[in-house]
Amino acid sequence: QVCERLDALDAWARREVVPRGARLERKRASVAVHVRELALRDEALAQAILSEVRLEARARGLFARDGRAVVEVELDEADKSHAVLELLERTGAAGLVYAGDDLTDLPAIQLASKLGIGIFVGSSERTPPPTKGVEILDGPGALAALLEELAAR
């Protein structure tokens, strides 16, 4: 029944918002509606679509999480930090590095900063939010350089 709700939202989004310029990304446990490209042409329409997605998600008993020019609709309020904890538990990993570039990544980045290394990858689109203990890098190139440095250790 839970997956049926996500499937129904996915079908609704393909029918109602994709034809108007949104881009849909289906993940295993979520549906993301992106409007970044649309916002460059029509910011008002992009924001209207995100509002519609939030309302539709709530009406279907799903949780909508705002990101950067995206609404990610999930089964519940569990965030990416829950998935990271589950992976750590399953793998028994001794270390953790998590990098993300969106607001939806912040809970996992904050968790990683406590258990290892949490990184917010900045961009020209968004100033990184002030978050205690989180490394802030200036773009994907800086992240690649850091990962190369860590791998060389």
Write structural notes for this entry.
The protein has helices spanning 2-16, 36-41, 43-59, 80-91, 106-115, 140-152, and strands at residues 23-26, 30-34, 63-66, 70-74, 97-100, 117-121, 135-137. By secondary structure, the chain is an alpha/beta fold. The chain has 2 domains: 2-74, 2-Layer Sandwich (Alpha-Beta Plaits); 80-152, no CATH class. Strands 1-2-4-3 form a 4-stranded antiparallel sheet, covered by helices on one side. Strands 5-6-7 form a 3-stranded parallel sheet. Helix 4 (80-91) runs parallel beside helix 5 (106-115). The radius of gyration is 17 Å and the shape is globular. The model has no long low-confidence stretch (mean pLDDT 89).
Helices, strands, pairings?
Layout: H1 2-16, E1 23-26, E2 30-34, H2 36-41, H3 43-59, E3 63-66, E4 70-74, H4 80-91, E5 97-100, H5 106-115, E6 117-121, E7 135-137, H6 140-152
Parallel strand pairs: 5-6, 6-7
Antiparallel strand pairs: 1-2, 2-4, 3-4
Helix pairs in contact: 4-5
What would a concise description of this structure say?
This protein is of the alpha/beta class and 153 residues long. The chain has helices at residues 2-16, 36-41, 43-59, 80-91, 106-115, 140-152, and strands at residues 23-26, 30-34, 63-66, 70-74, 97-100, 117-121, 135-137. It contains six helices and seven strands.
Q: Which descriptor suits the 3D outline?
A: globular
CATH overall fold name of the largest domain: Alpha-Beta Plaits
Helix content: 40-55%
Strand content: 15-25%
Attribute tags:
6 helices, Alpha-Beta Plaits, four-stranded antiparallel β-sheet, 2 domains, alpha/beta, three-stranded parallel β-sheet, 153 residues, 48% helix
